Amino acid sequence: MFKKYFPLILIVVFFGFLFFFRLGWPTLVSWDEAWYASIAREIVKTGDFINLKWNGNVFWDHPPAGFWLMALSYKIFRINEFSTRLPSAFLGVLTLIFTYLSALLLFKKKSIAFVTTMILGTCVWYVLRVRSGNLDSTLIFFYIMTIFFSLKSSLNFKFFPLTMASFGLLILSKTLIGAPAIMLILFLNFNQIIKFKKNMWLILCGVISFILIVFPWYSIQIKSSTEFVTRHFFTIGMRGKGLLSYFKLNLKQPFFYIHMGIRKWYYFWLLSLILIIISFKFLKKNVLFLLIWTFITLYPFLTSEKTELWHLIPVYLPIAFTIAYTMFELFKFVFKNEKITTLIYLLCFLVISFVQIKTFLPEIIPTSKYIDEEVDISKKLSKYKGNIYLVDQILPRVVFYSGKNNILDITDKDFIRARFNIHKEKEIFIMVNWMVDNLEKDGATFKVLEKNKTLSIIQSY
Fold this sequence. Notes:
There is one protein chain. With about 450 residues, the chain is α/β, with parallel strands linked by helices. The protein folds into 2 domains: about 1-365, no CATH class; about 375-460. The chain contains 20 helices and 7 strands. A 5-stranded mixed sheet has the order 4-3-5-7-6. A two-stranded antiparallel ribbon has the order 1-2. Strand 6 and strand 7 (about 455-460) form a beta hairpin. The protein is globular and about 80 Å long.
C-alpha cells in the first residue's frame, strides 16, 4: 500500500512545504489579492454570500466560488494574510494530486504521472499564484478535477454526474475561462453520450448537477440588474472583444508570457509539439486530447491584446501533460529498455525540477516579515471617521487593512484643492508626502493626523 501511494506522498510533502512555508508573512498586495480579500471579508461581515460587494459597490467581475472558500477560511482561522491565501495553497496541493491521478489514467504509467506533476508544480507563476489570495488556484483545481472525472466517466459513465458537477464549480471559479472545457468533456465521453437511450438517466443527472450548481447564483445576478450580463460576460469575460477579433492573432506577447511563467519547461514544450507532429503521435486519442486541450485554453489569449501573464496559467496543465508524455516516448526511443528509460527519465526531470526551484525560490519565499508604509497608514486609518479620499493607486490595500468601505479614489488635483477650499469638516485624505508638501505651498489649511516615510493622513478644516 505504501509503495503504491509513495509518489503521491512525496508530492504532498514536498509541495505542501513549498506552498505553505511562510505563507502568511507578506502583506496583501493591491490588484488583485487585497481586492479579493476585501470581498471575502464583506461576505463574513454581512453574511450575504450571493451579492458580492467591494468598497460599498456591487462586484460582478467574477463568480463567487473562490470568495466563498476564502470567506470560509476567515470563519475558521480569522481574517489575516495566512487565511486569505490558505484556500489557494490547499487547492494547489490537491491540484497536483488530481494532476497525478489524471496523468495515470491517461498514460497508465506512474513515471509519466509523477513527471507531469513535477512540471506543473515547478512552473514559477503557478507557484506564485498558489501562494497568493487570488482565483487562479481555485480555477486550476476545478479544471483538473473536471478533467479527472471526464477521464473516469469515459471508462465508467457512472462518473458523468461528478464530471458535470466539477464543470459547474469550474464555471463558478472565474468568468468564462473554464467554459471551453465542455469540449473536452464531449470529446472524452462522446461514445457514451451518443448512446443517449442507454445512458439517459446519467446524462440527465449530469445536466441537473450542472444546473443546480451554476444557475442559482447566475439567475439571481441577471435578475438583479440588466448591467450584470454586459459587465460579467462581455466586458470582463470576453474583454470587450467583438466576434471578428477572435480571428486576429497576437502571438508574440502570449508566448513570451508562457516562457516567463514556466521558464525552462518552455523549450521542452516546443520540442514536444514538434515531436508530436513529425512522429504522427497526434493520431492517438490521448495525444489528440492534449492538443485540443492546449488549443481551446490558449487560443482566446492569442487573440487578445489584454492578456496578462497570470491569465495563461490554465495552459500550464496541458503543457505539463504534453511534455511528460512526449519526453518519455523520446527517451524510450533512444534507450529501448523500459527500466533504463524510466530511471534516466525520472532522474533527468527531477534534476531539472530542482534546478528550476532553486532558481525561483528567492522570488517566492519571503526572507523577512514586515509591515510596509502603505499597510501601516491603512491600519491607522481605521480609527478615523468621515468622508475618506485616497490620492494614490493603492485602493485595495487601504480598503482591506483599514476595514473601511466607500473610500473614494481621486487623482484630479483641481478637485482636491476644491475640497480644501470649501472647508468641509472631517474630510480625510490619504496622500503621498510630496503632495502634502505641495498643498502646504499652495496655502491649503489642513491637519496632519498620521504620517510615515511615504504617506500621510490629513484632514481639511
